[in-house]
Amino acid sequence: MKLLSVLTYIYLLFKPYYIFKSGSIQISDVFLLLGFIVLLMLKRKKNMIGHILNKNKLYVIFLLFVVFINLIYFVIFEESKYILSCLYFLFNLLAIVIFSFLFSENKNFPEKMKRIFKINIVIQLLFYFTSIGRWYDSSRYMGTFNDPNQFGYYILLSIFFIYIISVYDKEKKWNVFYYLMAAFLIIKSSSTGMFVGLLVMIVLYIIENRKRIFYFFTKNIIVIIISLFAVSAGLFAISDGNKLFFTESFSKINVMDRLFQKMERVENISSNDGYNILQERGLDHLYIYPQYMLYGAGEGNYARFELVSHECEIHSTLPAILFYYGIVPFLLIACWIYKRTYKLNKHYMPVYLAIIFESFTLLNYRQSLFWVVFVFSEFIIEKGEKNEN
Fold first, then answer.
1. Whose CA is closest to 148, among 180, 116, 113, 195?
2. Which of 38, 45, 253, 345 is the most exposed place for a label (fewest CB within 10 A)?
3. CA 232/CA 239 separation, integer angstroms
4. Do residues 85 and 299 lie in contact, with contact meaning Cβ atoms separated by under 8 Å?
5. Helix-strand-coil percent breakdown of the chain, rounded to 5?
6. Could you give phi then psi for residue 242, rounded to 5 degrees?
7. Cβ atoms within 10 A of the Cβ of 79, count?
8. What are φ and ψ of residue 231, in 5° steps?
């Protein structure tokens, strides 16, 4: 089991490094595949694998639907994308099995996992300030990824894991410096979906911990006032005398321009004037081709949807599953997620509500860590039930 843990740690450590094109296997994925082979070799644990698959039978049945639907369309259109789409979900099942096993068998695994996310946030920040990281264009930073949304999503998931593992461990410190570093990197990615996901988490956290936050501020009110005064004085000192530094800087934050642009596209839905957010996310597939929500369109050959605004994939997780695989597989995966969240303590809700909200802004179900978030919630619930018994 030690070798499996090490291979998974390496997978997590190398996860941010995209060497090959997006959608293909990366170096980190090789270590997770090796980890699954090691897990299969643990003969005394084979019953455990069967138990994990049984607990995740809804996902397994969903995967069977995915394979069946995509194979039908593969025969019709002879496009390899349909096979690749099956492999994404199969790989995610391997991740579900491995992380379920390690969460239950290695009591130190969550804490070490959290440390790796912290290390990777610091590394990505160092890459930014040393100009090692990549840029999508002059305004969108993407670190060691191929796309700024991939980068922003990884950073957002990192703080999600740091938060829920800290809550699970009953850690009292707030990890505020890591959250600030992550927020800075997400802003630099100019990914509006990740920025909104971060805001949702912050707002929900403030609501959930309002008494604790109020106590902190009242206890440290003098220090806070002095700090705010010092920061304000410093900003004023480096301003040009006509416009305060922070006001000018705020107007130059690209993610804010992009956020306002998205808001305009939301308004265009009701006004029916110009390009709207539904078209941008590819959600117009659902109302232009509603029949596919019944039996599934398959995930590939996007050019056949000629009436949509742009002939590419849907950029939204749950609606994409509904469109590509139909109502039955969609309900299966929705139930799989619900079973892993509805008994959670309210202290975890800032993350789990935020990740569901964010999933409507990006197609993220190909990322194994998206599913691992819910694997951990299942572990939390089961651990709590065992303690009660």
1. 195
2. 345
3. 11
4. yes
5. 75, 0, 25
6. -105, -35
7. 17
8. -65, -45
Global pTM reads 0.89
In contact, 154 and 145? CB cutoff 8 Å: yes
Query: Do 302 and 312 touch, CB atoms closer than 8 A?
Result: yes
Rounded Cα distance between 16 and 5, Å, is 19
Q: What is the pLDDT of residues 246-282, one digit of tens each?
A: 444 444 557 777 777 777 777 777 667 667 878 888 8
At 192, phi and psi to the nearest 5? -65, -35
| Amino acid letter for position 101 | F
Q: Are the C-beta atoms of 224 and 384 separated by less than 8 Å? A: no
Question: What gap in Å lies between CA 35 and CA 377, rounded to an integer?
Answer: 22
22 close to 142: Cβ distance less than 8 angstroms: no
Residue 236, number of CB atoms within 10 A of its CB: 12
What's the pLDDT tens digit per position in 157-181? 999 999 999 999 988 777 889 999 9
Where do the domains of the chain lie? 108-388
Q: Distances in Å between the alpha carbon of 31 and those of 11, 74, 92, 218, 371?
A: 5, 29, 14, 49, 18
pLDDT per position as a tens digit, 303-312: 899 888 777 8
3-state secondary structure (DSSP) of residue 172: coil
Counting DSSP H helices and E strands in the chain, the numbers are 20, 2
Of residues 157 and 192, which shows the higher confidence score? 157
Q: Determine the Cα–Cα distance for residues 146 and 359; give it in Å rounded to an integer.
A: 20
